[in-house]
Amino acid sequence: MTFRFRFLPRPVLAALTAALIMSGVAQAQLLSPQQEAGAAIGKLVDSHQYQTALPRIDAYLKKYPRDAQMRFTRGRVLTELGQREQAIAAFTALTQDFPELPEPYNNLAALYAQEGHYERARAALEMAIRTNPNFAVAYVNLGDVYAKLAGQAYTRANQLAPSANVNAKIQALDHMLQSQTIAPAAPAPASAAPAANGHASP
Questions:
Q1: What confidence tens digit (pLDDT) does each residue in 76-100 have?
Q2: Which of 41, 66, 94, 103 is the most exposed place for a label (fewest CB within 10 A)?
Q3: Residue 86 contacts residue 111 (beta carbons within 8 Å)
Q4: How much is the pTM?
Q5: How far is CA 70 from CA 25, 54, 157, in A?
């Protein structure tokens, strides 16, 4: 079963770029040091250079510890590097510091589910949905988690009292979960992008 990860995009700089064109000043001259550093890290992540990106992210966060988007990116990079415990810690801290953002709950749930902790995954996804009732990816993930929990319950029931009917349900669930494809995640809401000073938008 594949669980979906939703990544926050880098801040949109279209308005800034338009202003630069009109003023005739080079873009780099008007970007703040924080924006320049964030853009450089974003390029590394986009090109899958995770090992190179991670120490730069850590250095960036020493200067701008309240940048929710960069902290989210750090969790993503740790996940890509297979450092699950550190990724779980990163996303857990995000849910504590920025409880209004549903995406960290979703990614935390995906990590829990991959480790077989489906009850923890369910609780995290319910928090994501409570935070944003329109977060479609979380609903899909929650359905997957409930299906996995149902499969475990049916399997246990079949062990205690073998039944052709229960066995058929187990096989149907297995077939459903194996045939799933990954649905693309929609862009993150604008409210999730951090402000220029490194704080999350309200």
A1: 999 999 999 999 999 999 999 999 9
A2: 66
A3: no
A4: 0.76
A5: 27, 11, 45
